[in-house]
Write a structure and sequence with these properties.
The structure holds 2 protein chains of 2 kinds. Chain A is an all-alpha fold. In chain A, 76% of the residues lie in helices and 0% in strands. In chain A, α5 runs antiparallel to α6. Chain B has a single domain, classed as Up-down Bundle (Cytochrome C Oxidase, Chain A). Classes of the chains: A mainly alpha, B mainly alpha.
Chain lengths: 234, 590
């Protein structure tokens, strides 16, 4: 359970830092009058939707951290046989990076008010994300074709389950992206799109980060890294 | 010391919210059924939770029938008994307590208490309720599925949970249970995002975090915990569903069932326990923290005195929330873990007693020399303190490995967790309903029926659960549907069991009286007015009672003070509402 504990420690650090900006030492019983706080960086300057997405991403991160924890615990048992990484996954990773970059470009264009580039970025981001999903399906087929079935080994079960869940999150993101794109093609000015595009980009970067972490996990590098840390500590 | 701006009250423009931000319903359906108003959603949540809670109450009666009078009732087979016990636990912990505290009180109170017009994402909030309802319906469906609901115990431990010997294990029961939990978690996450972000972003002008009523602090912290803890249950449920349906071996070891080797091999039931309790222990505080918050407000209001140690209360809530994530394995002392782990988890468990004890001292010190009005909410709040201390003390017993090992799986554990997370939070829920019912409906609940309900519930609950401690110390195991002829169990245990069963029926009956009171008072209760308890927090200062959609009329209130200005020296009345600019010259004198 060490992965989830580390994850929660990070969350606790962020929450603690935020709380420390909130005048927790004040004595409210001595203070009358209007206090205009919001000195902390999460004040109303930050759009509500962005805070909401941030909280949601913490929950999603928690979910994947828990799967990773379970992965490591199950891995320690004797029947674990790591499965080979299809080369296709490298390609998929590249496609997902492209997708993230495209949305970042769209965001920067939206801030500058260039509607055409926004549209281009959104379309590229969406199509590459779909391409990633298709690529993942092909990777599944390839593995299944070589006899690495869902139930034949826990390593396989985890691989299909976690990549499937990651894919589902991308599908959910595509719905949000479709809504933003719809607005981009129905005459909303680019600057008004900035928030929606930013939310999509945030979500995409986050899922890219999760994917990279999962890639490291499935490739077995994470386990060797932890093994090195353990040897350093003991 | 602080950047307060006394004197410049006139210069502050009222914070107006543009009309466009509120969704306006157009028909009866969108006003009362598919409503996006947090108050309507709160009532929907509460009614659903209470309805499914009544099912769990009936299940507990059936269990008590069997335990009190074994062999008398033929229809309660051992399998049926396990199903009752499982569904009773699951419903009470998740579908009643969690849903009612966060979905019910959270939805109703957060926007009103922080001075917001509504939750920040009303549409998602509405979805949250409908998914919750779907989860409840799936759960109810399992009662009618072939083989009935699952009988795996509320902890659903594999491997037994998905095997033939357990009721529902190889039928639909366990599948429906897991699907229902997954739905619940998805629905809760939608609601939880709303509660957290509304507290972060939706507070009105002047409502700093340290001016929020403790109710909001409790619900806020509990929601943050729930958002981080429920994913663990989600992961456990999904993986178990895979084991059950797709033949994977996440949790299932190599095992022989009815003389037949199963397909599974190598899985770890302990892994499930870790995931389950990583959710399960924070869950205790997810239920307890809102109760702590609400009870603080009840005590302060009904003792006409500011809460003692407000800052300490806030810090304790946050501290308990953080600590509760590193104690989960104290539910697993008998799982054969490394002794040093047991030592670690026993230590963290006992450390939680410190912030918790601080809270208890502060409640008592708030009462000290207060002007205590023994209203029904106050009676329930006082009963909560006593009950919580009782349950907490037995928690210290069970938190120590050497004491826990012999007491594990006995009725002592049952008595402990019913006292601390069954009876205690339920008492707060009752107190809170008596307290806020006038705001929700505009009428008071009937006082005489309330007195009966309180005394029957409070005394009855003690008569049910106190003897269980004794049974547990004697060695009576939990989860047995019948004790039979065990040498170690004396006759007195059987008599006590019969006594407990009778008491359970009486307490259950008192809840029916309460339900009657809830329905009867909507029409026939005494008119309450806007602020019957003369309370300070913002929900009592709305222009209309019950509050209209949008809560505060044209202008949002501006907050000038914390929520506990009762009996301020020099003030013209014994309470100053949070939006009362007051008299700064007089206030300077502190």
């Amino acid at each position: 359970m060490s992965v989830i504990i580390v994850f929660l420690a990070v969350i606790a650090g962020i929450s603690g830092w935020w709380l420390s900006q909130q005048r927790l030492m004040s004595k409210p019983w001595l203070e009358q009058g209007v206090i205009d706080e919001h000195g902390g960086s999460l004040g109303p300057a930050m759009p509500t939707a962005k805070v909401g997405l941030g909280v949601f991403l913490a929950v999603v991160g928690c979910l994947f951290a828990l799967f990773t924890s379970a992965y490591f615990m199950r891995m320690a048992l004797s029947d674990w046989q790591p499965l080979p990484m299809p080369g296709l996954l490298w390609f998929n990773t590249l496609v997902l990076v492209l997708s993230s970059v495209a949305l970042q470009v769209a965001l920067m264009a939206a801030r500058r008010g260039q509607l055409d580039t926004v549209r281009l970025g959104l379309a590229t981001g969406g199509l590459t994300a779909v391409a990633f999903l298709v690529g993942q399906l092909f990777a599944w087929r390839e593995l299944a074709g070589e006899g690495y079935l869902l139930a034949s080994n826990p390593a396989n079960s985890f691989f299909y389950l976690i990549t499937g869940l990651h894919g589902l999150h991308i599908v959910g993101g595509l719905i949000g992206l479709a809504r933003t794109s719809f607005r981009a093609w129905t005459g909303t000015p680019a600057r008004k799109l900035a928030l929606g595009v930013e939310l999509c980009a945030m979500y995409w970067h986050f899922l890219l980060f999760v994917w990279l972490a999962l890639f490291v996990l499935f490739a077995g590098w994470a386990a060797s890294f932890i093994e090195i840390c353990r040897q350093l500590l003991t | 010391m602080v950047d307060v701006t006394p004197g410049s009250v006139e210069a502050i423009p009222p914070a107006e919210v543009p009309e466009v931000e509120l969704y306006h319903p157009h028909s009866w359906w969108t006003t009362y059924v598919f409503s996006q108003d947090a108050k309507v959603i709160a009532i929907q949540y509460s009614c659903t939770a209470i309805a499914i809670g009544m099912v769990a109450l009936v299940l507990s009666w059936l269990m008590r029938l069997q335990l009190g009078f074994p062999g008398t009732f033929d229809f309660i087979t051992p399998e049926a008994y396990y199903q009752f016990i499982t569904m009773h636990g699951m419903i009470m912990v998740i579908y009643l307590l969690t849903a009612l505290f966060l979905g019910g009180f959270g939805n109703y109170l957060i926007p009103l208490m922080v001075g917001a017009r509504d939750m920040v994402f009303p549409y998602v909030n509405m979805l949250s309720y409908w998914i919750y309802l779907l989860a409840v319906l799936v759960l109810v469906a399992s009662f009618f599925a072939p083989g009935g609901p699952t009988g795996a115990g509320w902890t659903l431990y594999p491997p037994q949970a998905i095997m033939q010997g357990t009721p529902g294990g190889q039928q639909a029961g366990i599948i429906l249970m897991l699907v229902s939990l997954i739905l619940f978690i998805i629905g809760f996450t939608m609601g939880g995002l709303n509660y957290v972000v509304t507290v972060l972003q939706g507070r009105t002008r002047g409502m700093t975090l340290m001016r929020m009523p403790l109710t909001v602090w409790g619900i806020f912290t509990a929601t943050v915990m729930a958002l981080l803890a429920f994913p663990a249950l989600f992961v456990a449920c999904v993986m178990m569903l895979f084991d059950r349906l797709l033949g994977t071996s996440f949790f299932m070891p190599a095992i022989v069932e009815m003389g037949e080797q199963l397909q599974h091999a190598g899985g770890s039931p302990i892994l499930f326990q870790h995931l389950f309790w990583f959710f399960g222990h924070p869950e205790v505080y997810i239920v307890a923290l809102p109760a702590f918050g609400i009870v603080s407000d009840l005590i302060s209001t009904h003792a006409r005195k500011n809460i003692f140690g407000y800052r300490m209360m806030v810090w304790a809530i946050v501290g308990i929330g953080a600590l509760s994530f590193i104690v989960w394995a104290h539910h697993m002392y008998v799982s054969g873990m490394h002794p040093y782990f047991g030592f670690f988890f026993a230590t963290t468990t006992l450390i939680i007693a410190i912030p918790t004890a601080i809270k208890v001292y502060n409640w008592v010190l708030t009462l000290w020399r207060g002007d205590i009005h023994l209203t029904i909410p106050m009676l329930f709040a006082l009963a909560f303190i006593v009950t919580f201390v009782n349950g907490g003390l037995t928690g210290l017993f069970l938190g120590n490995v050497v004491v826990d090992v012999p007491l594990s799986d006995t009725m002592f554990v049952v008595a402990h967790f019913h006292m601390v997370m069954g009876v205690a939070p339920i008492l707060v829920i009752f107190g809170a309903i008596y307290h806020w019912y006038p705001k929700i409906t505009g009428r008071m609940l009937n006082e005489a029926l309330g007195q009966f309900h309180f005394w029957a519930t409070f005394l009855g609950a003690y008569l049910i659960f106190f003897p269980m401690h004794y049974l547990g110390l004697m060695g009576v195991p939990r989860r047995y549907n019948e004790l039979g002829d065990m040498g170690l169990i004396s006759d007195s245990a059987h008599h006590l069991n019969a006594f407990i069963s009778v008491m359970a029926f009486i307490v259950g009956f008192a809840q029916l009286v309460f339900l009657f009171n809830l329905i009867w008072s909507i029409r026939h209760g005494r008119e309450a007015g806007g602020n019957p308890w003369r309370a300070t927090s913002l929900e009592w200062q709305t222009p209309e009672t019950p509050p209209a959609h949008g809560n505060f009329g044209k202008e949002l209130p501006i907050v000038y003070r914390w929520a506990y200005d009762y009996n301020v020296p020099g003030a013209s009345q014994d309470f100053l509402p949070q939006n009362d600019p007051g008299d700064y010259a007089g206030a300077k004198g502190h």
